[in-house]
Design goal:
Number of domains: 2
Largest sheet: 6 strands, mixed
Structural class: mainly beta
Strand content: over 45%
Order of helices and strands: EEEEHEEEEEEEEE
Shape: globular
């Protein structure tokens, strides 16, 4: 049976599973000894992170969320990835600007099916969805292409 657990804000029910890590819940939030569970839930529910325009180079910081958006506005953009967690899946929605014909140079840690990086959809305002599984050292990529964004 849950027992009351006091916080500065209010009282909520305390649950004690075998590991003793889950302290309780309140208003849709989970409280753990180290906040890791709620942090994971917050990351999963985070909105798409808008990285703006690419320029000639762009760092995609995966610690800001699992879903990213980037408008390609330079003939070639060299991408760098940072902040991933091993075993997680990330996405980047790459959108061609109104000029189109933009390309990407991927980090060397990205592995594509067959060992060949995709050629991006080149039409103006077209988009490609890139999905990456991070293994701890490599990003295993897959993709869907030629979405219409206008």
């Amino acid at each position: 049976m849950p027992t009351p657990f006091n916080t500065p804000e209010t009282t909520f029910d305390r649950f004690t599973p075998n590991d003793g890590n889950l302290l309780g819940s309140e208003f849709g939030r989970l409280y753990t000894n180290d906040n890791t569970l709620q942090s994971e839930i917050d990351e999963i529910n985070a909105p798409e992170f808008d990285n703006g325009n690419s320029g000639a180079s762009k760092t995609i910081n995966f610690s800001l969320g699992y879903a990213h958006r980037l408008v390609l506005d330079s003939s070639n953009c060299t991408l760098t990835f940072s902040g991933p967690k091993s075993g997680k899946v990330y996405s980047i929605f790459l959108i061609q600007d109104p000029t189109g014909g933009r390309a990407v140079t991927w980090p060397s840690s990205v592995v594509w099916p067959g060992g060949v990086a995709p050629i991006l959809s080149s039409g103006a305002n077209k988009a490609d969805l890139m999905i990456f599984y991070y293994s701890g050292s490599k990003y295993y990529g897959s993709y869907s292409q030629n979405y219409v964004t206008t």
